[in-house]
Amino acid sequence: MQHALRHNFRRLASLRLLTCAGIAVSLIFLSQGLATYEQLANAWVVWVFLVSLSVLQLWRASRHEPSPREFFTYLLLDMGLIISLLYFTGGATNPFITYLLVLIVISAATLSWGHTWLLCLISLSAYGLLLFIHQPLPLLDVQLANLGLNLHIVGMWATFIMSALFIAYFVVDMAMAQQQQAKQLAQLREQSLQNEHLMAIASQAAATAHELGTPLTTMAITLKDLELDVSPELLPDIRLLQQQIGLCKGKLNNLVASARLSHSEPMPLGTYIHQVLDHWLLMRPQALFEIKQPDSAGPQVSYPQLLQQSLINLLDNAMNVSDKALQLELSWQEKRWQLSILDNGPGMPEELPGLGIKPSAQGMGIGMLLSQSSIARLGGEVTWQNLPEGCLCNVKVPVVDANTHSAH
């Protein structure tokens, strides 16, 4: 997205060009014998500088990212040139003097407190000086008086309309760009805090995985010995425990292998999802689900091991609160695929403070946090929606090319 300061930089140049168009019309009007040649010549010189400044500003905006100091410099040049123009065209009696307020409002909407107050003091001082030091336009006053008009009142009305339109469009647009950037910065700070939290969890998980290897091996050996001595009716339980220990050791091996193997083997998306479900059923043999998907196998994909674990975490979370089969629906398009998980549980509670995600009914939300973060790193997203029949979890993930390992 376009940087807010560059956006406002271009807006300021566009605003100045529109102002120059209005100034040109006014100078053409004054050239009808209402101002001296010297006044008009000097005013046109100032006009040329204003136009040149706008062109230069647009050129620089297309070449680099401006800084707040540069933005303020252009506002200062604007104010100086406008004050010079007012000096040659009536000074404080020129109603266009209220345009200085527009520059102050722009600074207030986009720059710091100090910059705004400096512009305010300059404009106040200039207004006071222009009351006494300026080149008057007596011929214009005389002509308008003959028509029964007052130059200052008519000009104030016209300047008010112009300033109001400029503020309503340009300044509000600049302020919204600043707010959008501030919102993005806040989201980045929140993401950074969340990443720090995840790194702490990951470090603890790695240490725990290292420590679990020895007790799992001890249990496997003990169960092997028990298998020779127990009664036949206990053998199914022994073998179930051996299977679960093997599953735990496999998880630890996958954790080590994932550091070396960045992506899974290429396979159709439908096959990948069913492989995830099969792995889930090994850990939760009592789990029930029904899945709907297109007839075709889907695009070829390859994903990190973390995506499989993230999907299993979400399936576990839904199964924990559901007493019926989960309703799964898989769909895909050219660039993204979606897996919908519908349970018949009570729905999602309030967000966990500081994590920005919603927890499961039975857990602390860490699995959900890890799943959401892992999927977000792939360019996907996880959303939840409470429905009358339960909670609907939608997982959207970019299609990752099996050959290049990069999202389309």
Plain-language structure description:
The structure is a single chain. This protein is an alpha+beta fold. It folds into 3 domains: 187 residues; 53 residues; 132 residues, Histidine kinase-like ATPase, C-terminal domain (Heat Shock Protein 90, 2-Layer Sandwich), CATH 3.30.565. It contains 11 helices and 7 strands. A hairpin with a 2-residue loop joins β6 and β7. The chain is rod-shaped and about 120 Å long.
List key phrases describing it.
single chain, 408 residues, alpha+beta, Heat Shock Protein 90, two-stranded antiparallel ribbon, 7 strands
Task: Please outline what is shown here.
The chain has 408 residues and is α+β, with helices and mostly antiparallel strands. The chain is built from eleven helices and seven strands.
**Number of DSSP helical runs:** 11
Beta-strand content estimate: 5-15%
The biggest beta sheet is recorded as: 5 strands, mixed
Average pLDDT value?
77
Number of domains: 3
Q: Spans with pLDDT under 50 lasting ≥5 residues? A: 352-364
Structural class: alpha+beta
Strand order of the largest sheet: 2-4-5-7-6
Q: Determine the fraction of residues in helical runs and give it as a percent range.
A: 55-70%
Report the span from N to C terminus.
Answer: 19 Å
Q: What is the ordering of alpha helices and beta strands?
A: HHHHHHHHEHEEHEEHEE
How would the global form be characterised?
rod-shaped
Gyration radius, rounded = 35 Å
Number of strands: 7
